[in-house]
Design a protein that fits this description.
The chain is an alpha/beta fold and about 190 residues long. The chain is built from six helices and six strands; from the N terminus they run H-E-E-H-E-H-E-H-E-H-E-H. The radius of gyration is 20 Å and the shape is elongated. The termini are far apart.
Length: about 190
């Protein structure tokens, strides 16, 4: 894993000149990058049991997003079900206690969280894992290490798609409500 972090940082250093954050202790449960100065920046929840990976993700994304980092599936579920859920989740598969596959399964079964896009960000590269993750409802599967520019592009794409789907759901609900009102008015005018 240390080699993977070094390779991600090497790839990242080619495009990101941000100084490294202060190192977190091994007991740190949450990593919070400095908030984007723009109000309303989307929140990205990074879930990985390795603090260095969480710090790296926070450093890569901190200028564009609010970044929350947690080290367990239970913490991820709690944040996703909170009053301030993330707009997108970056989820590792290999974690102790509850792996990323189970976290994804629970998020996609819950009506409160099923529409949150999940991108698996993991070192697992075999096709069976990719297929299982996508079949569960993840929107993408990115293997570590990945160039920061590619990760940012995928996040932007899936946030944009998620926003468009949200707008379509709102338009559909409005169209259904308009149809209901039209029927009610027609019923009232017939009497």
């Amino acid at each position: 894993r240390a080699k993977m972090i070094d390779r991600m940082e090497t790839v990242g250093s080619q495009t990101d000149t941000t100084p490294p954050p202060v190192a977190a202790s091994a007991a740190t449960a949450t990593v919070q990058a400095p908030l984007n100065p723009k109000d309303g920046a989307p929140t990205i929840l990074a879930v990985d049991d390795i603090p260095d990976i969480l710090q790296l993700i926070a450093r890569i994304l901190k200028n564009d997003y609010r970044v929350k980092g947690v080290r367990s599936g239970e913490q991820a579920l709690r944040i996703a079900r909170s009053d301030d859920p993330p707009h997108l989740i970056l989820l590792d598969i290999m974690m102790p206690d509850m792996d990323g596959i189970e976290v994804c399964r629970q998020l996609k079964e819950d009506p409160l969280t099923r529409d949150i896009p999940i991108i698996f960000l993991t070192a697992k590269t075999d096709a069976a894992n990719v297929i299982e993750g996508l079949d569960l409802g993840a929107v993408d599967y990115v293997t570590k290490p990945t160039p920061p520019a590619v990760l940012k592009a995928r996040i932007r794409t899936h946030l944009r798609l998620s926003q468009q789907q949200h707008e379509l759901r709102e338009q559909r609900a409005m169209a259904l409500e308009n149809a209901r009102l039209r029927e009610e008015i027609e019923r009232m005018t017939r009497h």
